[in-house]
Amino acid sequence: MKVTIEEKHKKELFVSLFQLLKNSTNALRIAFKEDHMYIQGMDKSHICLFDIKITSGWFSSYDKTVGDSESICIDTNIFFTVMSMCSENHVLVLEYENDPDHIQIHWIHDKNKKGEFDKIFNITLLDIESDYFEIPEVDYQAEFSINSKKINEIMSQLTSFGDIMNIKCNEENVTLISSGINGEMKVNISVDDLTEYSIAEDDESLNLFFGLTYLQKMCIHTKLSGEIGFSFGNNFPMKISYDLGEDSHCLFYLAPKSDD
């Protein structure tokens, strides 16, 4: 199995993706299907599930060989450490054969650029069994998209007042609230300031609660996409969506908290 990434913004996105996953779990399984790479898993507290699909066309090259193991398990901390050792002029190569104990990671430098060097890593794989969850189709009652930098800034500010976010949606506004012993912060976002917004006609309003720590540390990232999609429904996990381009996506599902 061999995949390469040459484009600068895709290298940055790939590194950012594993930075986010490192914050969620210490180990995960990566499956290399015939036409896409697939990752699914849960955070250490089993509150947040992530579901990632990157199509073969997203990579500069994606070569799957008969007899190669379909999936490998990695230590996310060491994997991200290696991912972060790239420079602007490196090409990323991930490679393994058969049923491996190690994966080779190469950062290959541009031969026309002086002062940089190839970096070759041989990373030990983990022996961990994990099952995939079947994610049901859900008709969400409210959905919206917003600029990733704006919502990241808002989430960071909300954590100054509490660790739980109350979100309310109606036909005119999305309201985000955080409160604690030091007071309360409320952010009113007009639907006109959202890239996309929809709410079911029979739902006058939604009133839900989610853990801010999980949202900020494990779900919200500005480098995966310029826009982040949010989907809500009573008694369902919140879905957070990143469009990675070329039919690829990164999804997070965060369980709600009770309001008591």
From TrEMBL:
<dbReference type="InterPro" id="IPR000730">
    <property type="entry name" value="Pr_cel_nuc_antig"/>
</dbReference>
<dbReference type="Pfam" id="PF00705">
    <property type="entry name" value="PCNA_N"/>
</dbReference>
<dbReference type="InterPro" id="IPR022648">
    <property type="entry name" value="Pr_cel_nuc_antig_N"/>
</dbReference>
<dbReference type="GO" id="GO:0006298">
    <property type="term" value="P:mismatch repair"/>
</dbReference>
<dbReference type="GO" id="GO:0003677">
    <property type="term" value="F:DNA binding"/>
</dbReference>
<protein>
    <recommendedName>
        <fullName>Proliferating cell nuclear antigen PCNA N-terminal domain-containing protein</fullName>
    </recommendedName>
</protein>
<dbReference type="GO" id="GO:0019985">
    <property type="term" value="P:translesion synthesis"/>
</dbReference>
<dbReference type="GO" id="GO:0006272">
    <property type="term" value="P:leading strand elongation"/>
</dbReference>
<dbReference type="GO" id="GO:0030337">
    <property type="term" value="F:DNA polymerase processivity factor activity"/>
</dbReference>
<dbReference type="GO" id="GO:0043626">
    <property type="term" value="C:PCNA complex"/>
</dbReference>
<feature type="domain" description="Proliferating cell nuclear antigen PCNA N-terminal">
    <location>
        <begin position="13"/>
        <end position="131"/>
    </location>
</feature>
<dbReference type="InterPro" id="IPR046938">
    <property type="entry name" value="DNA_clamp_sf"/>
</dbReference>
<dbReference type="InterPro" id="IPR022649">
    <property type="entry name" value="Pr_cel_nuc_antig_C"/>
</dbReference>
<feature type="domain" description="Proliferating cell nuclear antigen PCNA C-terminal">
    <location>
        <begin position="135"/>
        <end position="257"/>
    </location>
</feature>
<comment type="similarity">
    <text>Belongs to the PCNA family.</text>
</comment>
<dbReference type="Pfam" id="PF02747">
    <property type="entry name" value="PCNA_C"/>
</dbReference>
<keyword id="KW-0238">DNA-binding</keyword>
<dbReference type="GO" id="GO:0006275">
    <property type="term" value="P:regulation of DNA replication"/>
</dbReference>
